[in-house]
From TrEMBL:
The complex is composed of two ATP-binding proteins (PotA), two transmembrane proteins (PotB and PotC) and a solute-binding protein (PotD). InterPro entries: AAA+_ATPase, ABC_SmlMolc_Importer, ABC_transporter-like_ATP-bd, ABC_transporter-like_CS, Mo/tungstate-bd_C_term_dom, P-loop_NTPase, PotA-like, Transp-assoc_OB_typ2. Residues 19-250 form the ABC transporter domain. The keyword Transferase does not apply. This is Spermidine/putrescine import ATP-binding protein PotA.
Length: 373
């Protein structure tokens, strides 16, 4: 699978970059690179998320930026200065670790004060900073408690206060909400996002949860196998994935093999495995490859009878599964000679459709994207 070429820096102007990874590679065993050729700028004030499955190199990248791991090759710049030789406490970076390990024998206030000790800040000055940090996360009254006396969400806020207490310009968070239940996680996403905007800090955030990334980020770097697959704002990533990995990882996509046939009226014409012809937007094609994938989201496939704007692409198949999901039905349809196509159909439209029956579906060429990789 291709990734971004090595010389693709991001859209950030270099004077606006707080962080720059330049040709960074990391190997733990001297044989395999787990971060392969990372070129990435993070702009001042930006919320940048590294999103990817487990093992894709996100934590390693964050640890290198925080100073807990060294790049095997390449350079990391902070405000234009190389930082490889700076220890973590001299980088002025706040860090919330994956398992935000609070010290159980210390009070909340002592936990939050911990990073100040490393920086030689004690006494009244430290007390004032701790109070301010606890106030920011809504825990001003909890300073004397021990972590075990707090809920999971409150413990998470203590970890946040500890990362903010020395007023860093950059904060790194590694899956900070992983231990929380869904509702609390969604509330904390919004709280963290508000804190980041109101304090004007730059955030580099790691998650494997695509909806979390879409909610919080200015830009998302999608990681897979030690490489950035695509770097874009959430809307672009969702609407215009550039390869099959991103198409499959962000939201849901039907991705089906097809062969390029030609162009017609500004659209690409492709032939599916069973010989059916479909039309698709061809914005991405470099033109070299004939064997492609056609990608279309389940919400963009409807019943043929219900298409108001003319037929677009029409195809038929046999319903293999049908699930009720409250606001829609989810249909699995065997089409194009055995390919499973998933469609989301409004509940009110599914009358007369049953497992084993034939269904006629439609999708607009504008919603069909062709992928080369
Ligand atoms: P992610 O955070 O995306 O799950 P990681 O950066 O933790 O990915 O891991 C990337 C790869 O590096 C994985 O294959 C992992 O097993 C390996 N790895 C991570 N940390 C270490 C380490 N300290 N020593 C050896 N291998 C490691
Ligand atoms: Mg990780």
């Amino acid at each position: 699978m291709n990734a971004m070429p090595a010389d693709t820096f991001t859209t950030v102007r270099s004077e606006d970059a707080l962080v720059r990874f330049s040709q960074v590679k990391k190997s733990y065993d001297g044989i395999h690179y787990v971060v392969k050729d990372l070129n990435l700028d993070v702009a001042k004030g930006e919320f940048l998320t590294m999103l990817g499955p487990s093992g894709s190199g996100k934590t390693t990248t964050l640890m290198m930026l925080g100073g807990f791991e060294r790049p095997t090759l390449g350079q990391i710049l902070l405000n234009g200065n190389p930082v490889e030789r700076l220890p973590p406490e001299r980088r002025n970076i706040g860090f919330v670790f994956q398992n935000y390990a609070l010290f159980p024998h210390m009070t909340v206030a002592e936990n939050v004060a911990f990073p100040l000790r490393y920086r030689g800040i004690r006494g009244a000055a430290a007390g004032a900073k701790v109070a301010r940090a606890l106030g920011r996360v809504g825990l001003e009254a909890m300073g004397d408690r021990r972590p075990a006396q707090l809920s999971g969400g409150q413990q998470q806020r203590v970890a946040l206060a500890r990362a903010l207490v020395f007023e860093p310009s950059l904060v790194l968070m590694d899956e900070p909400l992983g231990a929380l239940d869904k509702q609390l996680r969604e509330r904390m996403q919004i709280e963290i996002k508000h804190l980041q905007t109101s304090l004007g800090i730059t955030m580099v955030y790691v998650t494997h949860d695509q909806s979390e990334a879409l909610t919080m980020s200015d830009r998302i770097a999608v990681f897979h196998d030690g490489r950035i697959q695509q770097l874009a704002d959430p809307k672009t990533l969702y609407n215009a994935p550039e390869n099959r990995f991103v198409a499959g990882f962000i939201g849901e996509n039907n991705t089906m093999p097809c062969t390029f046939v030609g162009r017609e009226a500004g659209l690409a014409v492709v032939r599916m495995a069973d010989g059916a012809t479909l039309r698709a937007a061809d914005t991405l094609l470099s033109g070299g490859k004939a064997e492609l994938s056609l990608s279309v989201r389940p919400e963009n496939i409807g019943l043929a009878s219900g298409q108001p704007n003319g037929p677009g692409n029409l195809f038929s198949g046999q319903v293999t599964d049908m699930f009720f999901l409250g606001d829609h039905m989810r249909l699995s349809v065997a089409a194009f000679g055995g390919q499973t196509v998933t469609a989301r159909i409004p509940v009110g439209q599914v009358r007369g459709i049953a497992v084993g029956g034939t269904v006629h579906l439609a999708c607009s060429p504008a919603d069909c994207r062709l992928l080369e990789d």
